[in-house]
Fold:
Amino acid sequence: MRLSRYFLPILKETPREAEIVSHRLMLRAGMIRQQAAGSFSWLPLGKRVLDKVCRIIREEQDRSGAQEILMPTIQSADLWRESDRYDDYGKEMLRITDRHERDMLYGPTNEEMVTDIFRAYVKSYRDLPLNLYHIQWKFRDEVRPRFGVMRSREFLMKDAYSFDLDYEGARAAYNRMFVAYLRTFERVGMKAIPMRAETGPIGGDLSHEFIILADTGESAVFCHRDYLDIAVPGADVNFGDDATIAKIVSDWTAPYAATDEMHDEEAWSKVADGDRLAARGIEVGHIFHFGDKYSKPMKASVTGPDGKEHFVSMGSYGIGPSRLVAAIIEASHDDNGIIWPASVAPFDVALINMKPGDADCDRVAGEVEAALQAVGMDVLYDDTDQRAGGKFATADLIGLPWQVIVGPRSAAAGEVEIKNRATGERDTVPAANVVARLNAG
Structure:
């Protein structure tokens, strides 16, 4: 993609409304534009990142056995009345009346709708377990939306819902999602720590928030340093082996980990001083078992092996892809801009032609672009007539993993300069060796 033809509205000044790093950098890098309070358009650069995050989420949900569907954003209030949540949900729910005077709402979540889908088709325990997920826009009318896409009114959500015959089956489903989440966050370049969360009136221990550590995090967190070194399961993990999956969850929940709301000073005092890690964190995912909270009032039951009707045991599992993009920036940036993990970077390489119109620069830049594209790398080629300082500032701001710099002197010698955005290290290599150098890391 040629930068001269790419819609990238870079802002030189920091917008006054931007209170946190991710909001500031997403606006400055031309990733988003605010349309109203808590409502944003995703511009080309931001949409590329969002799509890559969603692709990774989908791959790990599919790997774990979940199946993708797509539910509407506008829901019938009647479903919510069945579950007794319509009047209780509060002002965060945007209530709508259609032209036929029917009560509708813009969905803040989808437990009722997915339960309605389930009860319409699934009648026997033989069709279980089942986990359905979708990635869809949600709306919650926050009284004070702030921090950009970190806490907006309209946001993208991956929500999955599991259905099982009994608690044991539901726990196995919960464990599969737990491991899928570990892998998802690892793949987007983040270390997420599962921390025990409130379970509400249902009780038990099946509720965890997944927290990314970041100096600019919104809440205080406390955990054992062992979490920094626990290995995330690989792509070969067998989601069909309940015992293996349960062992992984056990290992990942054994050390102490808690948010400020769940912090237990007595338990914390038993952790050795050298093993304590008190930091700031950002919630990027939440998994939760709620049993028959929705299946019972909505009469979602199956015939069990005993011939009797059983209300299914359910769980819900959420990741906010739009929020996750901001969280990645909060955890990975410097004074000059964003530092994207390679797996979610909007482009792999910023190819910077320092003197467009110079025969050597144009030739070498064109050859490098073709070579990189031939091996499947996404290239953003800066062919603009901007000054050198502006080109470097733009490249650092948008944070692509690699910068390949083609200047008149180096091009004449058949060489280019390569900069690693994360480390700042620079190398000069023959133009013909660029692909090999980038593949070497």
